[in-house]
Each structure stands twice: as C-alpha cells, then as structure tokens.
Design brief:
Number of domains: 5
Radius of gyration: 75 Å
Largest sheet: 12 strands, antiparallel
Number of strands: 50
Shape: rod-shaped
Structural class: mainly beta
Helix content: under 10%
Strand content: over 45%
Length: about 700
Amino acid sequence: MKVSRLWISFLSTLALGAGGMVAMSVPAQAAPQVKTAAALFSGSANPNITFTTTAVCDECYPDAVGPGPGSWAFGASATTEVSGLSFAPASTTAVSYDDSLLRQGQTMPITDILTPLTGTMTATGQLTIDYGVFNDPVVNGTNFVPSGASTQSVKAFSLPFLCNMPLPGDAPANCSSGVVGVPVGAITVIPQVLLVPGLDIVLSINVSVNATITGDGVVTLRSAQVIGGASADTASLTFGGTSPSTQMDGLHFSCLQPAGNNVQYSLTALAYSPDVALSATTAVHFEGVITDVIDTNIFGGDLGSLTSLPAPVTLPLMAADQVFALGPLAKNNIPPVVNAGNGGAYSGSEGQAVAFDGSGSSSVCGFPTLRWDFSDKGVEFGAHPAHTFTGAGLYSGQLTATDATGLTSSTTFSVTVANVAPVADAGPNVGAAWGIPVALNGSATDPGTDDQRTLSYRWDFGDGTPSATGGPRVMHAYGTPGVYTASFRACDRYDACTLSTASVTIRQRDVTAAYLGDHTGTYNTAGTMTASLTDEFGSPVQGRVVSFQISNIGTTLAAGSASTSNSGIATRSLTPLLDAGLYTATVAFTGDSLYTAAPANSASYTESVKATVLSYTGALSGGPNKTVTLSAVLKDATGLPLANKTVTFTLGTQTATATSTATGIASTSLKLSQKNAKYLLTATYAPVGADANHYAGTSTSTTFTLQAK
C-alpha cells in the first residue's frame, strides 16, 4: 500500500503532539545547482631589465669610400630596457551545490571549480640605439671601433602576447611575443649621383620578449552571508593542483539566520602571484639598399643578437569579487532529538537532589533548550539539572527539547524516590535535683518535608519509668540522684526511625538546718532541743536524723539526735549537767543519698545553777543541857533530794553540820548549852567547789524554844 506524504505528515503531527520522541519529516528532493562566474585577473610589475647588443657590418661600408686609410665598417650598439610587464588572464569558477540543504541547521557541501584561461601579457620598454661609422687603421683589419660622432635613436616598444595561467600542478607556461622589428634609421654610404645609384644602410632592431610562468595557486577569501542575517562566514580557499582546480567547501547555516532571506556566496580578494622568469632577445639588423629610381635591397641580416638571462619578476595579480546568489534560506524542518538519559529511569532519596542528564539530546540547530517537568509540580532547565523530591514514592516527568526555530520534541521518564529516616536530636544534656521536672527538648527533621508533619516521638527516660509518647518536648522528674541516659526516638509514617540520646545528671538536694530549741537551761533540769530541716526548694526534709550538741571552750556536750517529722522538725529532751555559763547550741545533718550535708547551725545557750529548797524537819524545842536532833531535807527546784551536801544549823550561838543522805536528809545532834530563851534556828546550804556551779545556795529559819520543863 502506498502512503501519501500528506498521511506521513499527519502521522508526524500525531507523534509530536503525543509527546513522543519520534520526529517524522519528509526530506526534500535533491536539487543540484551550478552557478558560474568569470574573473579577470590583472597586475603589473616593473622588471627594469636592461642589456646591450653591439654589432658591425664590414661589407656595409666599402673601404674605398672611407674617409681615411684602413678598414671601415658600419656599426651599432642597441640597449634594450624592459621597464613594464602586465598580465591580464581570465578564469571561470563554477559553484555547485544541492539547494535542498540550503536550510537552517544544515551543512551544505559546495564544490568550487576554478578553470584558468589565457590572458594577455604585455611587455613595455624602450630601445636606445647608437649607430655610425667604425674604423680599424689596419688594412683588412677587424678590430673596429667608432670613428667619430654617432647617431642616437630612442624607440619605445609595447609587446602584447597571449599567455596561459598555470596552477602549481600544471607545467610552466612558456610565452613569447615573437620577433618584432623596430625601425631605427639609415645612413648613406655612397650618395646617388644622377643615374648612378647610391648605397644606404638601413638599421632596425628585432626584439622578442619571453616569459616562463610557474603558478602558485589562486588564493581567495570565501564569504557566505545570509542577507539581513548575522555576520558573514568566511574561510580561506586555495585553488592548487592542476587545472581545473577543485575545492570542497561547506556552509553551515545557523538556525538563528533568518529563514526566507537570500544566501550570497562570494569569492573575494582573489589573488594569483605566479613566479615569472622574463628574458628578451635583441638582434641588430642591417640591410644594404641601392638607391635609385627603385630601391633595391642587395644584402642584409642580423649581424648581432643577444638573449638575456631569465630574470625573476614578481607579478601579483588580483581579480574582482565573484558573487553567487545561492537562493533563499529555507526554515529548519528537523525537530530536535530528545533524550532523558539513564534509560528514562532515575532513582534517589527524599530530601536529596537527584541529578538528571539530558546531554544525549541534540538538534541540527545546536544543543536545544531543555525543560524538565516533574509530577510534583517542579520544573528544572538545562542538560544537567538536579531536583529534590519532598517525599518518597514513584514520580513521573516529561522532558521537552526546543530548538532555536521553535520545533519541539518530548519524552517521559520516571523517578523512584526512596524513603529516608528522620534525623533525631535529643537536645542538650540537662540536669536538676531529684524530684524536680527536667525539660527534655528533642527535635527531628525528616529529609522529606511531606513526612515532617507525620513524625511520631517516644522518650525512654532511663530510670525504669514508662516511656512517654507524644511531642518531642517533655518534662520528667527523676526520683533519685544519678546519671541517666534519656533516649529519644523519632519515626516517620513508614516506620523508619532514628534514635538520639541525651545525658541527664540528677543531683542531691541541698538542705538547711536551723536550731529552734531552748536558748537557756538549768543544771539537771529537763529542757527541749528543737531543729528544722528544709531542702533548697523550701520543702521539709522528713525522717532524717539531726544531731545536737552544746559546747563552749573546753566543754562539749553531745546532746543526742532526733528524726525529723513530716513537717521537717526534730525534737528531743535534754537534762544538761553543765556548769553554769555561756554555751553554743548546735544542730547538724550529715546528709545521705538524697540530701547533701547541711552546714551546722548554731545559737547561744545559757546554763544556770539550779535552785535548791531546804526544809527544816528537826526539833523545835529542848531543855538546857539536853541533846536535840536537828534535821532538814535538801532538794533541788524540781524536788529531787540532794545527797552528800553539807547543811549547817545555827541555833543561837551554837552551830552544827550534817551531810545529806540519798534522800536529801541532813541530820545531826546538838547538846543545848544556852539559857532558856527563844532562839532563831537557821538551816543553811551553801554550795562549795563544783556544786557552786551547779546549785544555788538556800536557807530556812524557824524559832527554837529552849526552856526547862
């Protein structure tokens, strides 16, 4: 079945519209074209070649008519000067090409064929001739020299002749003007007398110019220009080899050049600089002429001839530009080739840039513009873009290539993006006292921003208590001092997790002890010692043992210890046995695993002597010279009997002492020696020694009756 071009074009449109890689186009039929142009080269030089030829003709001048003895002859000297040389050869150039490639984005081969032709070479200059009678004094001699004045004649000449234009591979061209006679003049040897004929010598110079041309090629600067477009494309061409010379050239048409505008192809600065070897031949020509009614030549010929050695001549030739109109530049019709690279399948990880490679794309218009459209709405440009996907999954994309003329091609690709676990950070290491909530400031960042809001968090505090779930920032109170490792775990919705830890240092609580008890005491009298124990947060410290003591210089009384109550108060009773004086009451806590030791806290304490009470229990009457019993009971202020204490009884003028027993009774006998009367009876306790620092003295009085019965 035959498929029409219209149907092919329709299929091509469908392929492009569907975003496929296939770009269908119908190539134009080849259309060979040939353009020709002629070029006329021209150039000149000034060789300034000069040479002289001298000749004599003995038979031209009979010795008999000579003006004196010896031998006579006619002689001439000719100087030839070639002062100018010009050459104007022609050539033709044929430019052949296929105009179906005269299109944006295409490279069109061009075949340039230069054919050199024949041109006219012209040698110009002048002849300077001196001629006259020559003499040799010897009869029949041959050594002639000028005998007197000579005649000088100057003749200009111009000798045109055809010459080929050889290329380097051609054989040198040998060109010659041929012999050209230049009339100079005549002298009369024998004058004509009436009917007697005379003899004239007619002088002419035969000149020929010869040139040997060796070609060095035609050099030109090729210029190709789209009219109205960018600057011309130029290249140097050299036509060498043999004639005709063929040069292959190629023109690339940028897609930025304006379509529809004519293309002009020019060969400019055409130059041909051959090597020319120039020589000239000069011959002195004599003819003897009998002069009468009808002149008759009786002899003649070239008597002297000289050919100069070839002289090099530099003869640069130039020709006008050759301009060829190649036709209008057609619009590009080849869409770009699009290649998404990597087989169209890429992979990467979320949050990390995935590198793409479109460098396999191409276009006849140069590397196309590439646009990458991703299914996550992202867009990138260029041959080597990178794109970051915010979540895991399978993504698709389309790569579109656009050339400089607006033609496009598209292809699809896929990207598999792997999930990446979030990065967890348990935050800084923290610390606090036990029982005080610690702030744990965790955080987590997921490489895929789509997963950030789905993250879940869990804390393991490291103290055996249940883990916490919820947000990344939590508060937790540790029950005992120590160094704990708190673990923070963050997981994304795909259960990809990472763990981070922070160190938590829990310390003892600082405490303060304060003495709250009695500041005064009495010897051997019950008192109270009280203290409070609070931590640094003002909370009572319960169930801790505090110790008490009373001291001064040289004396320390350990006053025992007591445990603190729920309110942090410790109380104990104390019956001090101290000498009266000033003391310091101190409370202290040595600390334990939860609390630090409390600095000792002190207060002033004054110890006083204990009051005593003396009660008289003895006889209150007696007769003269009778013995009576005197007794008293000694107790302290709290009613305790005082033993081993001395009690002094004073009855009138009589005294007696007694020592108290364990029950505090001091008893003694006294024989009355006084007169009858009523007497004051006094019992006195006056502490001495150590007792003076413990007890206060006391006394009691009563009336004793002394009388006879």
